[in-house]
Specification:
The chain is mostly helical. It has a single domain, classed as Na+/H+ antiporter like fold (Up-down Bundle). It is about 75% helix and about 0% strand. Helix 3 crosses helix 8. The protein is globular and about 55 Å long. The protein starts with a helix and ends in a 12-residue tail after the last helix.
Length: about 325
């Protein structure tokens, strides 16, 4: 049974590709999974991740604030500048260029926590960076969008805060408390938690693809190329630039995931709420599937090669006696 569960989880990239393609062919199979279903789905995922965490994991993150600072800095510099540059490089029509900048200026999304969980990266660090970038986004998302596209955009601080508490913080706290005070129940739930995360994120991605089917099919190769380049570059630069600051490979992987994956749902909401042209929301729809696919591929590779087994990291740790351990429980 354990072998079957492991196979289903490790095949996450395959499920993303397969069900995204099915959503383009038969969107009605997946579009029912929307609205409150997505909210509850993300909440269940976060609860499962919380079950793998202990208070010590977050204390360890707080002892190394440079990790969180590095992730937030790269999130709100690398991605917005990439979004602005790629709009010109791919000669996108104005609505698509605006939408690309908007989604690139959004914070990290909860999907990055899922990918970190599946990739066996530093889950506590990922959750912390998502929370910090979401709070910073109250100011930085409208500011960066205004600076880069010259249009004013309003962001509801209350809605951002409420969404973070409901989908991220509350389920994580409940999971941590269950891990601490209900260890027997936690041990029974943990074996199936990764598979639940896979099913939920696949349904969420397929639903978004299905809902935006017509726009995606007619958006053209230039937009698709720009979105793919945005996220590939985010993953790559997030890893390489964070590597200059810390030699902790597990931390580098986590920051790479956090930088490369945006809160596309927030981008789509802001586009629809603040701009009259519906085409501005299309880059966010493509972004959701793209970063989930790239992230799932990275998770599939990194899950099979845990960072703590990397000989280069062990050499770095031996040569740096003051390095902080970066271990966290594995899903």
């Amino acid at each position: 049974m354990r072998g079957i569960l492991t196979f289903l989880v490790n095949a996450f990239p395959l499920w993303i590709v397969l069900f995204s393609a099915l959503a383009l062919v038969e969107p009605v199979w997946f579009t029912w999974f929307s609205g409150s279903f997505i909210t509850w789905g993300l909440g269940v995922i976060m609860l499962g991740m919380g079950l793998t965490l202990r208070p010590e994991d977050f204390r360890q993150v707080l002892r190394t604030p440079r990790w969180v600072f590095t992730g937030a800095l790269l999130q709100f510099t690398v991605m917005p500048l990439l979004g602005w540059s790629l709009g010109y490089l791919f000669a996108l029509p104005l609505p698509f260029a605006v939408g690309l900048v908007l989604v690139a200026s959004c914070p990290g999304g909860t999907a990055s926590n899922v990918i970190s969980y599946l990739a066996r990266a530093h889950v506590a660090l990922s959750v912390t960076m998502t929370a910090v970038s979401t709070l910073l986004a109250i100011v930085l998302t409208p500011l960066l969008t205004t600076l880069l596209i010259g249009s004013r955009i309003e962001v509801s601080a209350f809605q951002l805060f409420l969404g973070t508490v409901k989908v991220v913080l509350a389920p994580i706290v409940i999971g941590v408390l269950m891990n601490r005070y209900l260890p027997r129940l936690t041990r029974k739930v943990l074996p199936v938690a990764p598979l639940v995360a896979v099913v939920a994120i696949v349904l969420i991605v397929a639903s978004i693809i299905g809902q935006g089917r017509e726009e995606i099919l007619h958006s053209g190769l230039r937009l698709a190329g720009a979105v793919v380049t945005l996220h590939l570059s985010g993953f790559l630069l997030g890893y390489l630039l964070s590597r200059l600051i810390t030699q902790e490979r597990q931390v580098n992987r986590t920051i790479s995931i956090e930088v490369g994956m945006q809160n596309s749902g927030l981008g789509a909401y802001l586009a629809r709420a603040n701009f009259a042209n519906p085409a501005i929301a299309i880059p966010s729809a493509l972004s959701s599937a793209t970063h989930s696919l790239i992230g799932s591929l990275a998770a599939g590779i990194w899950r099979k090669r845990p960072a703590h087994e990397d000989p280069q990291d062990r050499a770095c740790k031996r040569s740096s006696p003051h390095s902080s351990p970066s271990e966290n429980p594995r899903p």
